[in-house]
């Protein structure tokens, strides 16, 4: 199983990372996309990959980080792309829910991530909250159709449109308790579907309010298999093939 979106660089994992990774391997997780959310955590995803080659680095600046400052730091993210280990650009996107940052600055920061992804031929890890329409508009304007809408929270109609553009749609542990997510996953073509934990955030049912971790993805897998009326082992094969294709893994 591949956890396609996780933040093992988060301070919440500093104390017991080796134990968390052992539990992940024991649960059957073979690869984890480890996404940075600012320049410091992004560079740490690359360092972590030296010690744990199965933790795949993704570099980017989250839209909730100070956008104006972040725009000035994009050259640091670009400099990281000399590492051939990087599998994606992100976490990036637009967040109008928390709305910490002016929307125009978020959009400019998102455009810069898109430009980098195109230049490096890497997929985008796209975060949206109440902002899918603007994300679609900007991606179309920039001519970028390569990536995943992570922790999908939009409508059925929006899912259809982003899939039509060529994107993947990923569900996190929210699937285990959200009626809406359960309805939408059933409409996503299986060759465009991914699962993730977004750990340490968004723990699945049974762990809500606690720190999330990669091993819990197996609970989301079981839930998704149930929703889609397919054996978990078979769904895992399909999802892993999708992740390998999107992130160009061997
Ligand atoms: Zn995330």
Automatic annotation (TrEMBL):
Pfam families xref list: TatD_DNase
Matches recorded under InterPro entries: Metal_Hydrolase, TatD-like, TatD/YcfH-like
Keyword Metal-binding: yes
Highest taxon of source: Bacteria
Span of the signal peptide: none
Keywords: Hydrolase, Metal-binding
GO CC entries: cytosol
Presence of the UniProt keyword Metal-binding in the record: yes
NCBIfam families named among the record's database cross-references: YchF/TatD family DNA exonuclease (TIGR00010)
Entry-linked PANTHER family: D-AMINOACYL-TRNA DEACYLASE
Protein name: Hydrolase TatD
